[in-house]
């Protein structure tokens, strides 16, 4: 089961973090921007190439420290087709380096469109006699607002070793507007978690966790505690660490008593760690490594992974 | 205001429909598939080229009948970067032909990622001294599950003539699982509509409608009636017509007493109308025209557009 592989990689590296590969044109180190400008000028292709080189650099330097990455589709998609081409290469490269690879889709689709998107990540897109998987990955993060029939096309691959994570409670301030609404005795994000459990039938791995998990922000520790105690069999992806304000003290509540069942997401605080130092970005890898090691230590000061 | 332009185009063509450009590899007419195969073989590039040619063909033949199109990003995205490149061309082509062009994103993103995505549709992505708008369009359809701060990056362009439509109540069967939950005296989809109204301050056009609208499925007429009477100032995008089971009799409730304030979405029933006839697709345009005209007549048998 794929969730077992994720948990095993976390245990082996003694690090329950997942780094978000979300490049941003403004923050990519200058030497990478200069390099692509020479070859591609001031084009979207140049920006996409810079995203790719920077992502490759981050993936290279963290591969023995960080077990998993989340490739943020929105970042790459904003650059158009060139950005999406770069993202496909980043997904492949991360897989080749041995990472557990999540595609952060942040989508919700229906019918044939959902079927095709699920196939593009987990199955094959058939063109005549040839099959392609443009976004091959181990898991996706998506929205469940449209309900079961929007998620089923993806979860139908869970029995073949793929994971689906549903946004239950996001880490942003306005999350409460919809996600915290109380309906009967359940809050909306609990309804999402209940749906994830319902879809999980027959999909539990050796570690006891389901192939279907949820995303729960670290910025609200009450929510985190409540969900962890109620949904022992759901693996949590936990955004909100670092740049968004939550720390290891908050994130600790995402784990069960064996230090399992969660991966803490961090993006900017690791990718752009170099900005806190006056070197213009030429040593961005060194600072990313230091930030990732520090994050690991912080988390391990609160939990022990068995 | 952009919503006024949409309403005016509807009035002028006396047709409140929006055609969903959602190509599907399996259903594209054979002669288009043969044509691209000769040039590109059995590749994703070939499939993307077929999507593009078919979309162009549909856009060409409906331009004097249909006022607006929704380009379904999921369909094109499933083909990887080649599909996205084709989508960018389809968006441009639709605009050039004079359509009101919606990008059906079906996304929800946060922070810098949302900022960049909004800029990629409504503003400019800056690469050094050059600016690009890979997905230039008049409006987007997106999810509001993450709340105000996920939507703001997009609605901040509404004062510059762009529309944002939020999924309130989708047309699929499982929509009820989350969207129909009752919280206090409001159902979740009403909360979405209330948020759309709250975000609309200062964004009402001459026709009285807000630049921010909602999507409400035609498959549940009770919902449609309730929302129409309660949210007089929100423009509705109404999926679920045709292939999904709803008819003009249901969709009529999306309009106000002046026959305004809504566009009925239809995809498969128009794009693949040729499949009901035994010609293998060589006259797909003729059948698409007939289906679009029939849909228009059906709707106009229930409403009058003033």
Question: Care to describe what's here?
Answer:
Chain A has helices at residues 2-13, 30-40, 44-62, 73-77, 81-96, 111-122, 148-155, 176-179, 188-199, 221-230, 248-251, 268-271, 284-300; strands spanning 17-21, 68-72, 100-104, 125-127, 130-132, 139-142, 163-169, 182-183, 186-187, 212-216, 236-238, 262-266. Chain A has an eight-stranded parallel beta barrel, surrounded by seven helices. The longest helix of chain A is centred in the N-terminal third of the chain and has 19 residues, at 44-62. In chain A, helix 3 packs parallel to helix 5 (81-96), helix 3 (44-62) crosses helix 13 and helix 6 packs parallel to helix 7. The model of chain A has no long low-confidence stretch (mean pLDDT 96). With 306 residues, chain A is of the alpha/beta class. At the A-B interface, helix 3, helix 4, helix 5, helix 6 and strand 4 of A face helix 3, helix 4, helix 5, helix 6 and strand 4 of B.
From the structure above, extract its key features.
homodimer; 306 residues; alpha/beta; eight-stranded parallel β-barrel; two-stranded antiparallel sheet; 13 helices; 12 strands; 44% helix
Write the layout of secondary structure elements.
Two copies of one chain form a homodimer.
Chain A: H1 2-13, E1 17-21, H2 30-40, H3 44-62, E2 68-72, H4 73-77, H5 81-96, E3 100-104, H6 111-122, E4 125-127, E5 130-132, E6 139-142, H7 148-155, E7 163-169, H8 176-179, E8 182-183, E9 186-187, H9 188-199, E10 212-216, H10 221-230, E11 236-238, H11 248-251, E12 262-266, H12 268-271, H13 284-300
Parallel strand pairs in A: 1-2, 1-12, 2-3, 3-6, 6-7, 7-10, 10-11, 11-12
Antiparallel strand pairs in A: 4-5, 8-9
